[in-house]
Amino acid sequence: MRHPLRLLILILLAVAAAGLWWWLSRPQPVAVRVESVTRGPVEEVVANTRAGTVKACRRAKLAPGTGGQIATLPVHEGDRVQAGQLLLELWNEDLKAQVQLAEREAEAGEASARAACLNADQAEREADRQTRLRQRNMASEEAVDRAITAAQAGRADCEAARATARVGSARLGVARAELERTRLTAPFAGVVAEVSGELNEYVTPSPPGIPTPPAVDLIDDSCFYISAPIDEVDAAAVRLGLDARVTLDAFGEQEFAGTVRRIAPYVLDLEKQARTVEVEVVLADQPEDRPLLAGYSADVEIVVDRRDDTLSVPTAAVRPGEPPTVLALGRDSGLLETREIETGLANWDRTEVTAGLAEGDAVVLSLDRDGVEAGAPAVADDAAGS
Q: Which CATH number fits domain 27-43+307-380: 3.20.20.70, 2.40.420.20, 3.40.390.10, 1.10.287.130?
């Protein structure tokens, strides 16, 4: 009896040792970061390739039409001005004198024209009287001829005097235009962003092809838009009126709703940069806590398509290929499984899944961890890194 019992004990010990060896040598589950397949909205978006820029709807870099010394400079940087308000005036006393002289000459010309026309009217009345007297044989034919000729000459003198008066009026217009070239007025209401020049400094207009700093930089700060470069590959999907989201570095994580209002009709080809299409986005509402400033950098996301209720996974979980795949954590087996999926809309954050997964399935995000492969035992651990 002792020998069978001893044999049984040895067999049990062997089985226990084998089980212990298997337990100690079995593959350890790898900790993976997972996220469940959820149902919700997914958007397809395109974004700018380089930083966009906040621009004022109207901005004018103004300079007088002629050179000269600054005699009047009633505005300063930061001043708010109204349309038509004087911004700068050059020394123009000589032109003012020419305008005054032209005004006097125009007045004299008009007076001469009135006098000539009065004389013409008198001559016509005299010709009428002589004609009636001739009909009653009370005036000679020669007197009638002289009266009619005098009336015609008077009318010609009247027309010539009026033409001279019009020449004088045109000369006055020329003098006033020359004077106006020395004055710089606001074409619209706005704020003065920059003034280049001081009193008594000399201002020179830009020669052809050689830009010079403007005398006054005027910005209409009542209206802004975002200009953003979109890669030529993505630009084909952009349409007027599409919704957009705008973020600005100066406003942190705050997002602003906008709408695409313009798509440039050409591709911009800059050296050493991708070919892009300029897209303009207008904001639905201006910030209330602080003003927008022209020149702020901005990022734009344009929503080209949207599904409101669909299955989706994090884009980081999708492995590219034909077809694309994900690693899923088996609900019962605890093993990682390769799942082939069909995808729809996608962006940098979420990808729509149209087949291959069900709501609640857990997909692996930490794909680069050692040991993360199909068939490996795994355990979900939200603290596991990539």
A: 2.40.420.20
